[in-house]
Specification:
heterodimer; A: about 300 residues; mainly alpha; 16 helices; B: about 170 residues; alpha+beta; Protein Transport Mog1p, Chain A; 2 domains; 5 helices; elongated
Chain lengths: ~300, ~170
């Protein structure tokens, strides 16, 4: 049983490294993310309503919807939380190995990417698939055609767009370089289902990934990655974002100096929480949008 | 009243006062205004938020207004008993359009009993400051919800009338 949705939204942090590192990405998606926290706050911001009794009514319906397991909202939350903790644990373990080595500024870049390229590529692809599956758990498959569905995906804004920016930048661009999407895809293409089974991030979320067995899941992940690689590449090129810019900005927001290695370890752990943070915000928004329309 | 019973009452009320004092003194924060609904919707045998018999959201899509005149329509949610689309203009969110099955929340339909106005023959109400709704066929609620100050009550009524309300009223 999950924590109550109103508590999760009330307890979303307003500071800390997750928030700062997301703020550092504002230059990628200017003005898109305001870090809206608090359940009633979110109701007011999403609906534009101010009457307390009405807000209570909307909130109560949202709570009911979240608590009805058949509606998929709890699955979505679980996916966001699990993909964060699974990949975070891997990062922290790899980070521990690096501590003690001499770190120059370029070394910092290297330390941001302690995972082997293969593991990092799988992480990127699994996280992307988690986003797709969570989207469908929350919103269903809107519209009557593939075009409608793609339009729904293309309408990402606010915290959802910020989550994608963080995925592309922190899990793609910085660790894998500008051709991260192709690298991810080629890793998948040369991989066996057995390789996938050994990936911690995948193992965390596999029960909700479509495809049946791991061979089917591998092919689902591959085709998903294939269909969004264009969007990802375009996201980076149309905004002219480089790995250096991302790291530069990050160091402006998060106090990381080259001689403070423990900060880096913490940073790595924390940046991995961006899925849970923005995912909770997305979930709250969608629940509230539905609740206000239904009451 | 026998003396023994009176003493028992005194002791009982003292005990209750003590309990109250202890519990209020220890409570770090007031209970959430959502504590009751949380309890009711998670206890064993709690009623489902969405009725089993509710119409699938995919059945609703074809009754939505067509885009045009500079307005773009993006379907955003399609769940059992509910479908929603966003109305955009020049890249900005203007309004949300929705159809829901009120069999899951009867109170949503009941509020139309007080309606004095009609749109295309269906009872309509205003909810809060951003919403206009109609009740179709006795149990489908169609709403338009403003998401931009320039999209006012008049616009909401106009867009409600653009739904295929007659068609929806025949949906079983």
């Amino acid at each position: 049983m999950s924590k109550p949705i109103f508590e999760l939204v009330d307890e979303l942090p307003t500071g800390g490294i997750t928030i700062l590192s997301l703020r550092s990405l504002d230059f990628v998606v200017p003005g898109q993310w305001q870090n809206l926290v608090g359940f009633n706050n979110t109701i007011k911001a999403v609906t534009g309503e101010t009457d307390e009794a009405l807000i209570q009514q909307i909130g109560e319906r949202a709570v009911q919807l979240f608590n009805d397991k058949s509606q998929g909202y709890q699955n979505a939350l679980w996916l966001y939380q699990t993909v964060d903790s699974a990949s975070g644990a891997l990062g922290a373990a790899a980070m521990a190995n690096k501590v003690g080595q001499d770190i120059s500024f370029l070394g910092f870049l290297q330390n941001l990417t302690p995972k082997p390229e293969k593991a990092q590529s799988i992480d990127l692809c699994v996280k992307l698939v988690v986003e797709l599956v969570a989207f469908c758990q929350i919103n269903g498959i809107p519209g009557d055609s593939i075009g409608d569905f793609l339009a729904a995906l293309g309408d990402y804004s606010g915290e959802s767009l910020m989550r994608m920016a963080a995925l592309v930048c922190f899990d793609g661009l910085v660790p894998l370089g500008p051709d991260f999407a192709l690298k991810g895809l080629s890793t998948l293409n040369t991989m066996s289902p057995n390789d996938l089974e050994h990936n911690k991030t995948f193992n965390g979320v596999k029960s909700l990934i479509p495809g049946g067995d791991s061979a089917g899941q591998l092919s689902f992940i591959t085709s998903s990655m294939d269909s969004v690689k264009g969007w990802m590449t375009d996201f980076v090129s149309s905004r002219g974002v480089t790995p250096e810019q991302v790291v530069d900005n990050l160091t402006k927001f998060v106090e990381i100096s080259k001689d403070k290695l423990d900060y880096l370890g913490a940073f790595l752990d924390m940046t991995c929480n961006y899925y849970t943070h923005t995912g909770t915000q997305t979930l709250a928004r969608r629940l509230i949008e539905r609740a206000v329309a239904e009451i | 009243m026998p003396i023994l019973q009176r003493w028992r009452n005194v002791l009982l009320s003292l005990g209750l006062c003590g309990l109250l004092l202890i519990s209020s003194g220890c409570a770090a924060k007031p209970p959430s205004p959502y504590a009751q609904v949380q309890q009711e919707s998670t206890q064993r045998g709690a009623p489902k938020a969405v009725a089993k018999t509710a119409t699938q959201g995919s059945e609703f899509n074809r009754f939505f207004p067509k885009p045009g005149n500079g307005f773009e329509r993006v379907y955003t949610q399609e769940k059992k008993g509910f479908a929603e689309a966003k109305l955009k203009k020049d890249g900005k969110d203007m309004a949300m359009l929705s159809i829901s099955d009120t069999s899951s929340i009867p109170a949503a339909a009941q509020k139309y009993a007080q309606s004095t106005e009609k749109i295309a023959g269906f009872p309509t109400v205003e909810v809060g400051t951003t919403q206009t709704g109609v009740l179709v066929g006795g149990h489908y609620q169609v709403k338009v919800l403003s998401r931009n100050p320039s999209f006012d009550k008049g616009d909401r009524k106009e867009w409600i009338a653009k739904f295929d309300l007659q068609g929806l009223s025949k949906l079983r």
